[in-house]
Amino acid sequence: MILMPVLGAVLICVAFAGLALGSAEASLHTIFNALWQRHGHDTMLHTIIWQIRLPRVVLAAAVGASLSLGGLVFQALLRNPLAEPYILGVSGGSAIGAILGIMAGLPSFPGISLSAFGGSIITLGLIMLMAGSRREMSRDSMLLGGVMANAFCGAVIMFLISMTQSSQMHHILFWLMGDLSMFQNRQLPILLTILPCFVVIFLFARPMNLLLAGRENAAALGVQVKKVTITLLIITSFMVSTVVCQAGLVGFVGLVVPHIFRLILGPDHRLLVPASILGGASYLIVCDILARLLPSEGEMPVGIITALIGAPLFIILLWRRRR
Amino acid sequence: MNPVALRNIELRYGDSTILQDISLTVSSGELLIIIGPNGAGKTSLLKIIAGLLNPSTGTTEIFSHHISSYSRRELAKKIAVVPQEIPLDFPFTVLETVLMGRAPHLGLLGFEQKHDNEKAWQAMEFTDVTHLADRRLHHLSGGERQRVIIARALCQDPEIILLDEPTAALDLAHQIHIMDLLERFRSKRQSTIIMVSHDLNLAAMYGEPVVLMQDGRIVRHGPPEDVLTRDLLIKTYGCDLMVDRNPLLKTPRILPVPEKCKQ
What is the pTM of this model? Predict the structure, then answer.
């Protein structure tokens, strides 16, 4: 496929744009210089690029890729093109887990990662119970359940943060609207844990295709439906909870990106998985650039941008399906 | 070595018994048609043969081996299932759908090879859908879609094909077309076909043999002229009907009697 190298090139370009754009302007030439000589000049720009913008761009890429892929997997497993980690409340569950971990004074790795993972698994378990309790439960009512789970998680997050005086706790807005600015270079290794998840999900691309034709159809075509479903759900919740710990709740990315690629590439997951990873990374880097540049002073949480794009798309998709 | 042998199958959900006392042997090359009133347990029986449903008691043997001794993938190489409908929420093309039939023959990630594509085109030619190859499934008519799903089953290269009312939603021409196609495939490949149908006349014309079910039991199993008798059908379906000979095939022909013809 010609599209993958193109998406790779796009990702590299927007990453450079992410390094170059900001309140302190930098030319491509100075960026190359600054990137090349890590410990060379101790200029202001050098520090900004290495200490502030680079971790931020890497985090945006990791969050965008993980959330897009998470959306893609949930859409395949629930056979619902509107499913997405944020809409289903899985991101919210992770955030509650992470906040409880912080309040309990756990170390950021593995303690808080695990408590966030636990939170996402619990919400996901509840959603799957709802989805499985009736044989043919309307898929829209499952979505409605997810939306309510999401609202409930938001309330719990605000409740918990209001109750604690902990100095470690970030701002409420960080958790509810997502924020990429708190991230630092020393947290980068945590993001490496999501790379194996990408590989495993790619290996399950074909079974995901078959699952779109229904569970019984997939089983009749040789898929071990239960095993595949459980593995994918666990891997995906881990991936989502990992990025939620670092970036808070960034919504609708997993809705927008897979939808665009499904329009271009069709429903084959062997193409959609790599496309969602590369495209999702680029998408969130661009959203983050907008979040930095649009306000005349300071910046806004990136979740505002993704919700402004994603929520209308959700409504359009819902409306088109009802017709 | 019989493709399918069921012994003393019983299926219960809570208090209700769906199937009981089912023993059935299907020989190689048969086109077995299961008929019976609504709720007789036909579809459940088909799912048990496919391994998609586990019976409460009893055993299923596929080619003389217990069905649980096969992995899902091995079973999919032996048995293809044609469901009544497949979900259409995701816009796969006809060719992509047919190629899914190759899944049990491929590795975890392997993209389809030339050989797999050839199989798919052969299957599509057989069911006459090659001209639709690039169309999306949800843009097709019911009859076209049914032919695509049957092509997927043929592409799977199975020894047994199970079909759940493949002609239910089709007009007369497509019904006959699909039945002829299945019969042609059976005689060409010596494969075994088991299908559920509501159409007694189709069962009479094509069934070799026919199985009549009622209330979760097999009432009779044999050639159409032994199963499709007036007395037995009246008793099973609870409606008045006449049975005479089909002038073309000499098989039974069933005619329900409407109320206005009764004295």
Answer: 0.88
Domain layout of chain A by residue ranges: 3-321
Contact A216 B93 (CB under 8 A): no
Tens-digit pLDDT profile for residues A207-251 = 999 998 888 899 999 999 999 999 999 999 999 999 999 898 999
Quick one: A3-321 is in which CATH superfamily?
A: ABC transporter involved in vitamin B12 uptake, BtuC (1.10.3470.10)
The whole-number average pLDDT for the span A279-285 is 97
The pLDDT of B154-173, averaged and rounded, is 90
Of B52, B73, B111, the CB nearest to A222: B73
Cβ of A222 and B52 within 8 Å? no
Is the CB of B111 inside 8 Å of chain A's CB atoms? yes
d(CA B143, CA A192): 50
ipTM over 0.85: yes
Confidence band of B234 (pLDDT split at 50, 70, 90): very high
Cβ <8 Å between A81 and B81: no
User: B70 to chain A nearest CA, in Å?
Assistant: 11
Q: Is the pLDDT of residue B212 over 90?
A: yes
CA distance B133 to chain A (A): 14
Contacts of A205 in chain B (CB under 8 A): 109
